[in-house]
Amino acid sequence: MRICFLTNSLNSMGGVEHVLSELANELVKDYDVTILCSNVREEESSPYYPLNNEIKLKYIKGLHQRKIDYLFRKIIRKINSFYRLDNVSLLKFVYFPKRENNIYVDALNGKYDVIIAVQDTCLLQLASIADRISGRSYGWIHNSCEAIFGTRN
Prior knowledge:
The chain is an alpha/beta fold and 153 residues long.
């Protein structure tokens, strides 16, 4: 089975990066494992935690936007945070531009049996293209009950 973890990056010492590295190191013993990073360029990143050499570490190329596009989308996102826009087409355009969706589809479609998006932004991105890719899609939010609900129980 070919498993792909879609994540922002592995170059910090956070809990997600640690758990993902450990999980991938165990799964690669029995499966073909790829970790696909979306928010960093290959030359800017190296995993903070050690990875088994059999794990394929890849980077999505071409996602970095032109500055004017980035600024426009950032302004719309800020407006949305205050006014909660209901225009689904506009929000899809702002948060999941067609060009970016196509890059994700090209990077994922037909290459993996299981795709696991790690954390919120990757999870939402995967959900926005799930109908255009083959393989099962899953989302994984790494968090604690205490952080979400303010209690340990």
